Amino acid sequence: MTAPHGAHRAAAPTQTPPPGTYPSGHAGFAREWTGALWSGPKLPEPSAPELHSPRSLGATMRRAPFWIAVGGLLIGAVLAWVGGSTGSTPNEVVLGVAGLFAVGGPIVALVLGTARRLRIEASVPRVATWWGLAAGVIAVGVALGLESAFRALVGSASEPGYLFAGPAEEFAKLLVPLILLAVGLPWIRDPRAGVWVVVLAGAVFGIFEGIEFAVGSGLHQDKVLGDVDLSGLSESTRHALLTFAGTMGRAWVELLHVMITAGAASVIWLNLARGTRKAAGLIIGMWLAAAALHSFNDGVLTLLPGAGPQFASIVFIVALYTLWYRPLVRRLVPPDALAAVPTRWIPPLPRG
């Protein structure tokens, strides 16, 4: 087994590990690393150690993403209650800021955690970050245009609009990254760079949508707590509860904008980097898969009675992270990050 000097160090690298054979993170096995992705079969190597970071609550609490998420949720919760406590006319500015913190905190934490595990700062050019942010802004405009056109076509009924949100929004978030890939920009061919652009596009989209929903949460009780009876509460308490529930519910739901699209993007970019000849079918298939997951949340879970959507969406987000986002994105973790990621983020070995 060969590896460049210093490849086994846990310290942050200064560049992407060069091609070579590296420990896979699984005891007794190595794999080839092309410089951009893991490739080839698993290679028996008795000296290859098991690599992962120790898992502990203390270690998690010492990291910035944890406190960014907690701080955002706490500030957002307070502002959401204050913004709605004015009664039937909620303070939309305060609610917008509440949405920014409540939704932005968890999303930024997810983005930073992903960047650390994929060694984005060390391996992806800074231009990718700017393109990712721009892609998110463009995606918002594209999705708004598509959804407005769809509502004009079918009317203002909620159910068809919720179902269409999945295809429209997943298309919008993938649009710019795929255009950059199609025009042949060299840096975006790297799977980590491509997925990073998509992660940021999803983050921007999710934060924007979270703010939008937070601002409207006090005006649409049927979309927040359904038919839950709040008649026994004072007007100010009732509206404060609505804005609180509506805003904090979006804090979890909006994570799907990163998780769903980035998971699909990881499959697309890895297969394209391996030279698949079915690029169009692959892209369409992953877009449809992402759209189906998205529409399940928007068009099925949101129609549950009472406060059901709030609780069901939390369960959905946990399942989405466990069964979709982490299993797909962890395939991008490079050799020099293996000792610094949790066990479940170690790339899987190929079968056989």
TrEMBL record:
- Any one GO molecular-function label of the UniProt entry: peptidase activity
Keyword annotations from UniProtKB, A to Z: Hydrolase, Membrane, Protease, Transmembrane, Transmembrane helix
The Gene Ontology biological process terms listed for this entry are: proteolysis
Q: From what organism does this protein derive?
A: Serinibacter salmoneus
Q: Where are the transmembrane segments?
A: 64-82, 94-115, 127-146, 171-188, 195-215, 251-272, 279-297, 303-324
Q: Where is this region: Disordered?
A: 1-26
What is the name listed in the Swiss-Prot or TrEMBL entry for this protein? Protease prsW family protein
The answer, when asked if Phosphoprotein is one of the entry's keywords, is no
InterPro entries listed in its UniProt record: PrsW
